[in-house]
Design a protein that fits this description.
The chain has helices at about 5-20, 30-45, 50-65, 100-105, 160-170; strands spanning about 70-75, 80-85, 95, 110-115, 130-140, 140-150. By secondary structure, the protein is an alpha+beta fold. It has a single domain, classed as Beta-Lactamase (2-Layer Sandwich), CATH 3.30.450.40. α1 (about 5-20) packs antiparallel against α2 (about 30-45), α2 runs antiparallel to α3 and α2 packs parallel to α5 (about 160-170). The radius of gyration is 16 Å and the shape is globular. The protein binds methionine sulfoxide (SME). The site of methionine sulfoxide has 15 residues, from α4 and β6.
Length: about 180
């Protein structure tokens, strides 16, 4: 496994600190390009999947406003299993086709739910969640998991979030 040198760790942390913006107050102000650059710095030289997923969830938790859960479910034996996340403890196993996560995983497409109470089969992990976005993670043509983000506000996520998060995953996935 490739190990980052001390120098690359310090330069990555410096690049991260230098590029850190203030937390945006509105979704439209989220600078996903900058977040992607920060992520690239954080995962550079690190090949461990869990380490990179953990730092990505922490970065999104820090930089996205108006969210109450962000994290990953990883595909194992045709089920989604809870991976690194930030927020309240969550359900550990989701079947393909179940809930928002299982639906996005089965479709292989991003699902945005403006009001989770209107989504048949929504799985409530945190009662505060009102809207949700789930982005599938596809590596070498195979589904490997999903990125899931919840908000306590209705209609928190839009096509800009979808585009930004899909681009962000293009940075992350080669390092998983
Ligand atoms: N709401 C998700 C379950 C995961 S939690 O939100 C963390 C779903 O319906 O699949």
């Amino acid at each position: 496994m490739q190990q980052p040198s001390d120098r690359s760790v310090s330069s990555r942390l410096k690049a991260f600190a230098d590029s850190k913006p203030g937390t945006p107050s509105k979704s439209a102000e989220t600078d996903y390009g900058l977040i992607s650059k920060q992520l690239a710095g954080l995962i550079d030289g690190e090949s461990d999947r869990i380490a990179n997923l953990a730092n990505c969830s922490a970065l999104l938790w820090q930089e996205l406003s108006g969210i109450n859960w962000v994290g990953f479910y990883l595909l194992k034996r045709n089920r989604l299993i809870l991976g690194p996340f930030q927020g309240k403890p969550a359900c550990t196993r989701i079947n393909m086709g179940s809930g928002v996560c299982g639906t996005a995983a089965t479709m292989g497409k991003t699902v945005i739910v403006a009001d989770v109470h209107q989504f048949p089969g929504h799985i409530a992990c945190d009662a505060a969640s009102k809207s949700e976005i789930v982005v599938p993670m596809i590596k070498d043509g195979q589904l490997i998991g999903v990125l899931d983000i919840d908000s306590p506000s209705v209609d928190r996520f839009d096509h800009l979030d979808q585009q930004g998060l899909e681009n962000l995953l293009q940075v992350l996935i080669p390092q998983l």
